[in-house]
């Protein structure tokens, strides 16, 4: 039974005290055995107890696999060894191997390019679209608000397949559209040309993940007090000035969140690569997760190498997230 | 097909009693039923299982009938885990690593050494009937299924690399099937210039084990070269036929004679793309693509695509894919029974699955008797000319003979590099010389790792 009720609901507390008094005096309530130890748990201890199931679940489903993957990254691991549960230790051997593998370094470089393009494009588009659909006087914005969510409902692999049809050199919709508009005279080999393939991959990815960013920015925009805009208008501020000096600064917290989330997710892009290019042509679209996947799940199934490469990627993402948060909040302060 | 002996009329009463007693004693001793000699596929294993499973890659609807037949014959239902060809090794190995039960699976010759090295494959020597199967293997099947003298699998299907051409465009261009590689280039240039088609050739050059690498292997072998000699030394150095072949191959892309989609297509997708009727030639690749291209339900140019051999003496490559008994099986005897249904004989003694694969999917067999049967000579007729394909078949060697790295576990990771570097060469990012030099260096890297 709670001894300290830290709520504003005094009525309930009083009722509770009355019940306790009634109970102690042998009232009509059924008698319950007194458990002094648990009855005297402090709020702090109770908080710990209440959190234990969550902590245990998280430890089981998050910390254990992450820790186990770290363990694997220092061992030579194949599926047969994984089945037996016995792995020879290689120390830092796996890390040394991947860091001296030109393909891993290229995959990292491709990942950085992919992330930079997608994150910048997503943030810019998210702000622009959120501003547009936030216009209450434009009735179509309500329809747009609904339609903008549709790509988010498309499974990533299906999205990849849709775009691989769109990009098809001979029969793709994109080439046909551009050709009909007179923008190209010959079909473009979007995903077969090493110069365009990586950038071609960014489009389906942005298309799929943009709605999430739009939603967050849209929600943040709803929280800005309209009086600020009215006051600025009275002072003669135009739309651009209002955006620069009111909207953008107030969006910064949500943009930081978006920056961290979108960077983390873009760093682990996989489905589009699998469905559209499989890393090709050549190594033009090998990204970091594709590298980990190929090393772990294609012969000779070197899971230790895959785990090590995933850890390098995780460290980079963590460092970037930390840098974002530190830099941007320092500027705000 | 061998009949099962049942009569006892030739035996005297005493002899019958003696032999029956001996048989009963043996049965009691080993705890299994007696077998009629020569028909082990017809005997029920002594143990009991509730169900069995197999892990395979998809190819049309080739498992429904055989699964039903197994259930009908033995009363044991089958569970199938079916993924795409490229995902199969991943699926299989993750199931294996995760401690799941897998009775039977399959492998391309390129993944097989890895599966064996990982301890996933159970040898079949000594299992009832295994010797008889071996005697009926084709040369290609033997080369894949027998590893270091041990029988490790039964054949799933066999294939050879052939060329296809689209007769309408050939007639329009007034071409005859090319007889030299120079003639092929001339025809492609002329077809482009005359507006017959933009891209005359569709190569099967998508990333894969047999696609892009297979095309290069075949072209090299047909021109008289190999990738590795019998001692395992690479043959990719300056002046080698493989390197010169790549030098010849690159301009088909840089001169825009080859369909740019070639770099993405696998066997089935290339067959489907060829159905659009925009290319004159497709190849060299598996013969059974015709069962898509010449199928009226799938192709607008059905019946207008023919098969042809390769230039010169016409030599080509082929391979065999296998089913194998997985070491993670639930019951070895029953798993062997299932393996035979997929890659050998059914209860009635027939090569049911091999025959079905020939008639339903135009696949060749790793069994000599099936290759000579009507399942092939008649079964292939709806899609192509069996006589012509079998003529090409006779000029084929198993791909491992010209690229014996296939027998090594490092072949698979090396193929990853082949896919990357050759695609870079074909798209003009690097020269053929640099590509081959990189691949030579990569051999040591993958062997080391």
Core attributes:
heterodimer, A: 333 residues, mainly alpha, MetI-like fold, 2 domains, 15 helices, disordered N terminus, B: 449 residues, alpha/beta, D-Maltodextrin-Binding Protein, domain 2, 9-stranded mixed β-sheet, two-stranded antiparallel sheet, 19 helices, 13% strand, globular
Explained architecture:
The complex is a heterodimer of chains A (333) and B (449). By secondary structure, chain A is mainly α. In chain A, 70% of the residues lie in helices and 0% in strands. Chain A has helices at residues 10-24, 36-39, 43-73, 79-84, 93-99, 102-133, 140-147, 156-166, 173-180, 197-222, 226-234, 239-267, 271-277, 288-297, 303-332. The longest helix of chain A has 32 residues, at 102-133. Chain A is globular, with a radius of gyration of 28 Å. The two termini of chain A are 44 Å apart. The model of chain A is unreliable at 1-29 (pLDDT under 50). Chain B is of the alpha/beta class. Chain B folds into 2 domains: 46-158 and 319-377, Periplasmic binding protein-like II (D-Maltodextrin-Binding Protein, domain 2, 3-Layer(aba) Sandwich), CATH 3.40.190; 160-318 and 399-448, D-Maltodextrin-Binding Protein, domain 2, CATH 3.40.190. The longest helix of chain B is centred in the first third of the chain and has 18 residues, at 13-30. Chain B starts with 12 loop residues before the first helix and ends with a helix. The relative contact order of chain B is 0.16. The A-B interface holds A 78-80, 82-83, 97, 103, 168-171, 189, 191-194, 278-283, 286, 294, 297-303 and B 86, 89-90, 93-94, 96-99, 111, 114, 117-120, 206-207, 259-261, 263-264, 273, 276, 278, 328, 409-410, 412-413, 416, 419-421, 423-424, 426-427, 429, 449.
Mind telling me the CATH superfamily name of the largest domain in chain A?
MetI-like
Q: CATH homologous superfamily of the largest domain in chain B, by name?
A: Periplasmic binding protein-like II
User: What is the CATH level 1 assignment of the largest domain in chain A?
Assistant: Mainly Alpha
Most extensive interface, chain pair and sizes: A-B, 31 and 40 residues
CATH architecture of the largest domain in chain A: Orthogonal Bundle
Number of strands of chain B: 11
Helix content of chain B: 40-55%
Q: Return the structural class of chain A.
A: mainly alpha
How much of the sequence lies in strands of chain B comes to: 5-15%
Shape of chain B: globular
Main sheet of chain B, how many strands, which sense, barrel? 9 strands, mixed
The strand count of chain A comes to 0
User: Structural class per helix/strand content of chain B?
Assistant: alpha/beta
Classify the helix fraction of chain A into a percent range.
Answer: 55-70%
Q: What would you report as the Rg of chain A, rounded to the nearest angstrom?
A: 28 Å
Instruction: State mean pLDDT of chain B (0 to 100 scale).
Output: 90
> Which residues of chain B form runs of ≥5 with pLDDT under 50?
1-17, 19-36
Q: Domains counted in the coordinates of chain A: how many?
A: 2
